[in-house]
Amino acid sequence: MTTSPLYLGLDGGNTKSLAVIVDAKGRVLGHGRGRCGDIYGGTETSLRTLRTVVGEALGEAGVKPDQVAAAAFSLAGADWPEDFDLLSQELGSLGWGGPWRVFNDAQGALRGCSVDGFGVAMVCGTFGTVAAKHPNGTEWFAGPFCTAGGGTGIGKTGLHAVIHAHLGVAPATRITEELMALTGRPTPAEAVKVFTSRVDGAAPSLAGITPAVVAAANSGDAVALGILGRAADELAYLVDAAVRHTGLADVFTVYQTGGMPKDPASAWARTLRERVLSMYPKVEYRPADLEPLGGAVMLATDLLGLRVEREWHEALKTGLFRLKEERR
Length: 328
What we know:
Blueprint: E1 6-12, E2 17-23, E3 28-34, H1 43-61, E4 70-75, H2 81-92, E5 100-104, H3 105-111, E6 119-124, E7 128-133, E8 139-141, H4 151-167, H5 174-183, H6 188-196, H7 210-218, H8 222-246, E9 253-257, H9 267-279, E10 284-287, H10 292-303, H11 310-327
Parallel strand pairs: 1-4, 4-5, 6-9, 9-10
Antiparallel strand pairs: 1-2, 2-3, 6-7, 7-8
Helix pairs in contact: 3-10, 4-7, 4-8, 5-6, 5-7, 7-8, 8-9
């Protein structure tokens, strides 16, 4: 039986949900993985997923909830007060050995961005969102006010561009060829069918079209560049809102985090950076230190008032990287 303080972090997203048990040295002792944990993607199914993922992490670590010193649940769909009430009731009733709290997933993403957790996190994943924290403690997250800055919005608009081009009512676009290559289908109509037909089961997420849009933009396609530009505008507007709501000055750090863009040299990454710097030219713009799952763990340590040391932070970073490589 372990005597080291243990922390649980849960990152429940739209694409996947991850949980880890971490000890006082930053070592990952157990983990769990599941599908969508957003209650807006199906309340009962998502709650069952979250409980299962937590149970897997506890089981692999060989501990019970009452042996966990602190637990943080960073969850997509934790937007309105009633969402927090529901999620707290479900996850808080497991019998934790110390403080626990439900957070919006953007808050977890921000906490993983740096050791101190201050600044603005621009989260580019299945959906786009933003969270910010001022050194004085003032916080804000976009939550239900997210618009079209994520993979789903980009993918949906890209699919519409392919459809319109195929019907001859809008300019041709390189997205069509990229989508055909992505899906392995020989015609535009067959490629569209992958994302709109019920015949082969549930259609895949529209966010899966985003790589085709980015690839087309990388080749200079005007339609694709326009789609990415509008999506970047939406995220930049949320960054501006976050700055206004928290009172951050014009010198702060904006962190890019989430599942996309993976290539910092891509048209999408460049567009995001350009949009933010056009609004706040004095900010530092950089990638996050840790993935959002690491941020959830750090939120758990915050609940105990612990100061995150660089050595512990680096150990956690290494452990999560190894875990990610093992999952490939």
